[in-house]
Design goal:
Blueprint: E1 2-4, H1 6-14, H2 19-26, H3 30-37, H4 44-54, E2 63-65, H5 68-73
Antiparallel strand pairs: 1-2
Amino acid sequence: MRFSYNRLWKLMIDMNINKNKLKELTGISSASIAKLGKGQNVTTDVLLRVCNGLNCRIEDIMEFTKDDEFNEEN
């Protein structure tokens, strides 16, 4: 299992927000945005800042997904 941030990118499109604007609204670093873009781990502080900046809930920006390796093992 892994986290997917596809919901975040969809929400940003719906809100007409780009990554630079996300950085301004949330105060998170470019490195954190890059990690989100790659589906890597970020701190809960980053997730909280995104939710506060976009005025949304955690389930609006992320979800659990099964990765390919997990599917092949089962």
